Amino acid sequence: MRVAIFGTGYVGLVTGTCLAEVGNDVICVDVDALKVARLERGEIPIFEPGLTPLVVENHAAGRLHFTTDAAVAIAHGEVIFIAVGTPPEEDGSADLSHVLDVARTIGQALSSPAVIVNKSTVPVGTADLVRETIAAELSARGSDLSFDLVSNPEFLKEGDAVQDCMRPDRIIIGSDSAHAIGVLRSLYAPFNRNHERIVLMDVRSAELTKYAANAMLATKISFMNEMANIAERVGADIEQVRLGIGSDPRIGYHFIYPGAGYGGSCFPKDVKALEHIARSHDYEPRVLSAVEATNAAQKEHLHALISRHFEGNLKGRTIAVWGLAFKPNTDDMREAPSRTLLEKLWSDGASVQAFDPEAHEEVRRIYGNRADLQLCDSQYAALDGADALVIVTEWKAFRSPDLGRICAALGHPVVFDGRNIFEPATIEAAGLAYYGVGRGRSVQAPTRD
After folding, report:
1. At what angle do helices 238-246 and 203-234 cross, to 10 degrees?
2. Under 8 Å between Cβ of 141 and 111
3. C-alpha 395 chain-centroid distance
4. Which of 188, 218, 296, 370 is deepest in the core (most CB within 10 A)?
């Protein structure tokens, strides 16, 4: 099929590349000419495992193209995807300006019937706005062209997006058009071979499904973080609790890992947007409000542990931080727990020596050059002259470190494990004090003041 995709961000680029990989002729559109030029050269603006070779190979094969010319893309597309960003407004609502700009552009340039697919995460009712916007532009041109509008939300996890796209666990198609459903069935057939993954529903239900899915996962995380905080106070070990409840198939093990709080481009934004949607329809979303408040508080938990250990005196101390991205296998720093930690340490007069395998460029973009921030070439270099070590992101490279080297390098032999990747007894046997999240107690090793 001939496919046009508006947006070369995370969703648009991954979706377009995967559709090209299975044989479709895809044009991706972006208003940023420099970004388009970089993509043409095979320079990928995001870190996503497995994406770069797919982009390069499909571009070389002539199945994946990049352009700033929206009219060319619209003329090309039998199926036209809207996959642009919907950043949060000050009140938590989703900013639909980019989505509606694309809708206007489609209406101004559409020259033959097409299926318009909204891939962006949008509030319930956005499909109606997009339909009205396109129809108004067509009417202004005196055109009576027909088009179908489909809600087809994405469910891509950063770090696993290519796999999620190529082997989806579900494909939501929201439409009341038999023609549009047939077109999307054909487009997604290569991803739907082993068993039926397509779930058909009305447009508004599809729009809400995306928000509901992310809100449920965020709820599980905040719930476990709350249980971890209780475990710390009653002397229980949340990791044992996790195993105990995860064995119940009604609960399962996914997303019940306590930690430093969730971040990224989806969960924080979507929980707030769903809260706003509920309130705009005169409903108070008490659970969602609690999920968001719990997460905001959890992002301060690591700092509280560090401050308690050093008796509130962090001025002049140097803290080593392993992991800056909000999760492994990405360079995304949006709403990352590390940002809360860094900023609170700096406000206390502490300096940070940090290492992350992928996020250094993004950290520099956000914070610039600071005397109290050193980005190190390796995880061990971050330890030199540091008073303590904090694990914020659970990169695989951090899971089996040289504990003797850590102990010897730190001015104070203490590890703050924000992702519970270590066993307390192992860390303590190496002569280090250990603080986890909800691990029940902290064993103090001697300090070296």
Report:
1. 140
2. no
3. 15
4. 218
Q: 163: which residues sit within 8 A by CB, 6+ positions away? A: 50
Is pLDDT at 177 greater than 50 in this prediction?
yes
Q: Is the CB of residue 48 less than 8 Å from the CB of residue 17? A: no
Just list the catalytic residues.
266
Region of residue 158 (phi > 0: left; psi between -120 and 50: alpha; otherwise: beta):
beta
Residue 131 amino acid letter: R
**Residue 246 to residue 347: CA distance in whole angstroms:** 39
Chain length of the chain: 449
Q: What is the pLDDT of residues 131-154, one digit of tens each?
A: 999 999 999 999 999 999 999 999
Tokens 């005169």 -> residue: 282
Quote the CA–CA distance of 281 and 289 in Å, as a whole number.
16
Please give the Cα distance from 35 to 38 (Å, whole number): 5
Burial class (CB in 10 A: 0-12, 13-18, 19+), 157: middle
Q: Is residue 175 scored above 80 in pLDDT?
A: yes
Sheet arrangement for strand 351-355: 373-375, 351-355, 318-322, 388-391, 414-417, 433-435
Determine the Cα–Cα distance for residues 203 and 187; give it in Å rounded to an integer: 18
CA distance 218 to 271: 8
For the entire predicted model, the pTM comes to 0.91
φ, ψ at 78 (rounded to 5°): -75, -35
